[in-house]
Design goal:
Layout: H1 29-36, H2 40-56, E1 61-67, H3 76-86, E2 92-95, H4 97-107, E3 113-114, H5 121-126, E4 129-132, E5 135-138, H6 139-153, E6 161-162, H7 164-182, H8 189-196, E7 200-201, H9 209-219, E8 225-226, H10 228-244, E9 248-254, H11 257-264, H12 266-273, E10 283-288, H13 302-308, E11 319-323, H14 326-340, H15 353-368
Parallel strand pairs: 1-2, 1-9, 2-7, 6-8, 9-10, 10-11
Antiparallel strand pairs: 3-5, 4-5
Helix pairs in contact: 1-14, 2-14, 3-8, 3-14, 6-9, 7-8, 10-12, 10-15
């Protein structure tokens, strides 16, 4: 066998040969990843893709996706994230508020356009153009989106205390209705998650224009209050519920930042704070351009997460970190998953939040007795 070491040879030489076929231009993305992404971070992306389709997408695995960075302005919500949600490949989401706010532009029929980074920002400001690196849009896009959120936040259903999953579910329903009125389809991640029953959480609800408009409504007498404790307990309940049902928990991290910590802290919340017996997440996939040696969270490795109880130490073979720009890695990751796996039955965890929270509360009370 050519892939086996010679008698007495090193076991390190037992891996597959690097002998790829020539690229001829006819390859699908998934085939290109399998055949040509053999080493360095291309190799890690291939490992991440294969881990996702071969293990993470099993029916008994509950998949949490965390998102950071300006993904939605670049159209990645429409091109890559909505297809994952609609295929049942994502069960719950942690996102920055900014991603969700900019996502709403598309569901409201507002325009963002491709531009270039090497322009005068003074001139852009004078002409009422906002820039996100090489993305341009009219300042009125922000004003229109703000007006939309302020209007819906006046609704009676918002005049109470809630977590961000409920906030985003209600907002997603309104965005979906606006899509329908405008004849749009599959434009907003918020709307797609509303329809699929995927709960969407934000670790810092005040750190975005959605939160800014919630604050403005408070000044005007609105009664909406965002309770982050609800989010901490609901996300921990999702993970605990997956494990107690005999299943597994996976985290797929696009970027890093606060969403990365929030999706991972579910296990320390269960083990360290609530003092319930648990071992950690079973699968860990991350695409990031952050380095681990600076001490920043976004570059923190799965093995470092083991020391916190975030990742099951026995699961380290099922962890992959790919140091790559998410705007490159995410579309390829999505294309591979959709090419290699059939859709899963959605878990609709939004509809099961109360049930899962009851399980968490019951175990917590029993542990304290």
């Amino acid at each position: 066998m050519p892939n086996e070491p010679e008698p007495g040879g090193s076991s390190y030489l037992s891996g597959p040969l690097i002998d790829p076929p020539s690229i001829d231009g006819s390859e699908r993305a998934a085939d290109l990843i399998d055949r040509a992404f053999l080493a360095y971070n291309a190799g890690r992306l291939r490992e991440a893709c294969r881990l996702f389709v071969e293990k993470v997408l099993e029916p008994d695995v509950t998949i949490g996706l965390s998102l950071s960075g300006a993904l939605s302005p670049a159209g990645l919500g429409m091109s890559a994230l909505i297809p994952l949600v609609e295929a049942g490949f994502v069960d719950w989401i942690i996102s920055t508020g900014a991603i969700l706010y900019h996502d709403a532009h598309f569901g409201l029929g507002l325009e963002l356009r491709r531009g270039r980074p090497n322009v005068s920002d003074v001139e852009l400001r004078q002409e009422g153009v906002v820039r996100i690196y090489d993305i341009f849009f009219d300042y009125k896009v922000l004003l229109s989106t703000d007006a939309f959120f302020r209007q819906i936040l006046e609704g009676e259903e918002f005049q109470r205390t809630m977590g961000t999953a409920e906030l985003h579910h209600l907002c997603g329903g309104y965005v979906r209705e606006r899509e329908k009125a405008l004849g749009l389809h599959r434009k907003s991640l918020l709307a797609a998650c509303y329809e699929a029953g995927v709960p969407v959480y934000t670790p810092a609800p005040g750190d975005s224009s959605i939160g800014m408009n919630v604050a403005e409504r408070a000044l005007a007498g609105g009664q909406l209050c965002i309770d982050s404790s609800i989010d901490v307990n609901e996300t921990a309940a999702i993970v605990l519920g997956a494990k107690r049902a005999g299943g597994k928990s996976a985290v797929v991290i696009m970027g890093g930042g606060s969403p990365k910590n929030f999706v991972l802290q579910t296990e320390p919340q269960i083990q360290e704070v609530l003092r319930l017996e648990e071992a950690g997440h079973d699968y860990f996939i991350q695409i990031t351009d952050a380095r681990p040696d600076t001490g920043g969270l976004s570059g923190a490795t799965p093995s470092e997460a083991v020391s916190w109880g975030k990742v099951d130490p026995d699961a380290l073979p099922d962890t992959v970190v790919c140091y790559l720009d998410v705007s490159v890695g995410l579309p390829l990751f999505t294309a591979y998953a959709l090419a290699r796996c059939k859709p899963r039955t959605p878990k609709r965890l939004y509809d099961r939040r109360s049930e899962l929270l009851e399980l968490l509360e019951r175990e917590y009370r029993e542990a304290r007795d």
